[in-house]
Amino acid sequence: MSRRPVHYRTATVRGHEIFYREAGAPDAPVLLLLHGFPTSSHMFRDLIPRLADHYRVIAPDHLGFGRSAAPRAASVTYTFAELAAITDEFTEQLGLSRFAIYIQDYGAPIGLRLALKHPERITAIITQNGNAYTEGLGEAWAAPLALIADRTPETEAPVREIRSLDGIKWQYLHGVEDPTLVSPDAYHHDAALMARPGQDEIQLDLMADYGSNFDLYPAFQEYFRTSQVPLLATWGAHDEIFIPAGAQAFQRDLPNAEIHLLPTGHFALETHAAEIAALIDGFLARK
User: Confidence class of residue 2 from pLDDT cuts 50, 70 and 90?
Assistant: First the structure.
C-alpha cells in the first residue's frame, strides 16, 4: 500500500461543485477513475492507495452522485452526454492532456465518450464491468430496458427499486462467493446518498437516457478498431448486470485486449482490490 496521502478536493465545473479524490505524484502518469451507478468515487477507496506510488490517480464523483453537487433535475439536464461534457471540462481544468481511464458501469459510456472526442488523450482503458457491447447486457436489464422503451409510471416503479437499499445491496452481494468480505458500509453509504431529495428524478432521467449509450456502441467499437487502444478487462464473472460476454466481446475489435474474469460480482473491487491493482500495475507498465 502506498504511503502517499489521498487528497479530497473539489473543482467548479459549469457552476457545479465536483468532488474528487486524488493521490500520487503530480508528474506521474495519470489514471482517471470513473465510477458507476449507484456509487461514487467511494468505490475506489481500496484501489487508490494501491496505485498511488506509480500513478497520479484521480477519481471524481459524477454530477448528481456522491459528494458532488446534485442540482434538481428541473434545473439541469441529466444525460450521459452532459455528464461526459462535465467530465471533459473537469479534465481540462486539471490540465490532464494524456491519461488512462478506468471505467465501471455508468463510467463506461462517460469515459468512452471522452475517448471519441479526444482519442489522442487516452493512453489505455481498464474496464471493470464497464460495457460497450449488446452481448454484455444481462437479465438485470429487463426493467431499465422497459423504461428506456417507454417511460411511464408503470415502467418507472421497478427502476426505483434498483436504487432502494435492497436493490443496492443486491448489486453488491449478488455473485460474491463470500458475502462476508463485502463491507455493509459500502451499500449503506450508497443507499443513504440515493435517498436524498431530488434523487428520484435525477436517477430516472439518467436511466431513461441510457439508450443513448446503446446508440453509440457502433462508434465505440469503431474507435477500438481504429485506435487499437490498449485495454484490460478485470470483470466480475458472476455479474448479472454486465455479463462476461461483454468482457470477451472487446477482443473482437481489440485482439490484444487482456481479459480477466474474476470470481465475484458487479462491484469487483469490494473483494478483489489487491488483485485488480496488481493487474493494472502490470498492464500499464507493459503498455
Answer: low
The answer to whether residue 179 sits within a structural domain is yes
CATH label of the domain that carries residue 71:
3.40.50.1820
Among residues 42, 189, 238, 266, which one is catalytic?
A: 266
Is 266 marked active-site?
A: yes
With respect to residue 2, please indicate whether it lies within any of the assigned structural domains.
no
Instruction: Give residues with Cβ within 8 angstroms of 168, minimum separation 6.
Output: 38, 162, 187, 190, 191, 194
What is the rounded CA–CA span in Å between residue 106 and residue 130?
Answer: 7
Percent of the chain surpassing pLDDT 90: 98
Whether 267 maps to a domain, the answer reads yes
State the total domains in the chain. 1
**What integer is the mean pLDDT of 26-46?**
98
pLDDT at 1 over 80: no
Asked whether the predicted pLDDT for residue 259 surpasses 70, the reply is yes
Strands (E), 63-199: 99-103, 122-127
> Is 1 part of a structural domain of the chain?
no
Task: Report if pTM > 0.90.
Answer: yes
Containing structural domain, residue 48: 7-286
- 61: its cell numbers: 464523483
